[in-house]
Give the backbone structure.
Amino acid sequence: MGLPTSPRFDLDGTVAVVTGGSRGVGVGIAREFLLAGASVVTCSRQELDPPPATDGLDPSAAARAVHLRCDHRDPAQVAELVARTCDTFGRIDVLVNNAGGSPTASAAKSSGGYFASVLALNLVGPFVMSRAVNEVMQAQDEGGVIVNISSLIAEMAAPGLAGYGAAKAGLNHLTRTLAVEWGPKVRVVGLGLGSMSTPSFEEYLSRQPPPTRQILIDGVGLGRLGTPEEMGRACIMLASDLCPFINGETIYADGGARLGAPLTEDG
């Protein structure tokens, strides 16, 4: 017999910004905020209308969603995104720094430019976005919460993902430091993800030999991949008044994968 299902959070009146909101985990996070009653601004480097997170939602929820084109590494584009969000909704209560990612590449064969580009996407971008949103949150009576989406690879050796792992480890440190610098008005937390059931990861799994695919699943304590929707609920929980004393920490939602088999270069 499973645990009873808890009612959804009531986020009516809350405004959330979710970066990387065009696919995968970002869409799942944005949808959960919308379903909980929040107004949501998603962004990516593509113009998308309607916002992907509204697919299948009722019109009242879809009306609370906006998708804007923004490269989170570009301070000018970020400033425009923040201004348009405040013009439309009047405030920003939650920022989820979700945008990021990296293809696999051997460290010995990667250039310094490639390494720098991975750091820019996964570490510099979240800093640029956080700094801009912090200015808004500091001016609000209620402050706000920033959730940085990290990865279990920040704490594990992952051949082929040296730049990505280094960036996520840096993001965990950034979470700790910003929590101290920007508190008590702004709370900063991290959510470290394991392997997610997204189209991109499923495609990656399809290219692996059966033994490797099985290791990737068996290495998760719960014996399955996580879902974007589950990560959305975790973000809501961390940003909510249920967790007001969690600050500067990165909480891992990886199904216990850090306790299982280590990652190898071929999967």
Notes: Residues 15-259 form a domain with the Rossmann fold fold (CATH 3.40.50.720).
